[in-house]
Amino acid sequence: MTTRERAYAKANNQRAAQYTEMWIVGTPDDLAVMIHVASRTGRLVYVSAPHQMGPEDTRHRRYLRLRSN
Fold it and tell me: What is the pLDDT of residues 25-48, one digit of tens each?
């Protein structure tokens, strides 16, 4: 592996390690609390719109991107 390839691999690993991406599932109230806490700590980067889990299921699903550091 050349020096250039090592530097490129290291930069890619550092960029990937900066964020944690996850789907969270819960009631709208529970999700609101989790998102509020993530926002207050400064870790929240992106949150998707809520998606209902199913026609009879009252839970919602949201995608979060959080800063790792």
Answer: 999 999 999 899 989 988 888 999
What's the CATH number of domain 3-67, 2.40.160, 3.30.70, 1.10.10, 1.20.58? 3.30.70
- Per residue, what are the HEC states of the chain? CCHHHHHHHHHHHHHHHCEEEEEEEECHHHHHHHHHHHHHCCCEEEECCCEECCCCCCCEEEEEEEECC
At residue 57, the pLDDT reads 86
Average pLDDT of span 47-51: 91
Distances, alpha carbon 1 to alpha carbons 5, 11, 41, 59, in Å: 6, 15, 40, 49
